[in-house]
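Each record in this resource describes a single protein on a pair of labelled lines. The shape at a given residue is found from the number at the same position. The record below illustrates this layout:

***
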Amino acid sequence: MKLAKVFKEHAGQVVVLQPLMRDAATNRPLAYKVLRACTCMTEAVKAQWYCLAEGFEGVFIYPCAEDAALAPEDAARMFRVLYGRE
């Protein structure tokens, strides 16, 4: 599922995403899998760390709510995954 569709379907929530497909040349993600849809940021952080502990790669938090603010380390992780650095 593309980021625009994730944002539309999960409006007002915070989701934990994992890249499904990547571009061969740039390594940037093209499609994502929603691992967990959460109602608050603390729940999403716990879900992200759980997924990372279970061995999922490229997991990051994506806020679909306007009032949700990411912590600096979570924002950095999101952009590293989106730009194909992780």
User: Anything to note?
Assistant: The first strand starts at residue 14 and ends at 22.
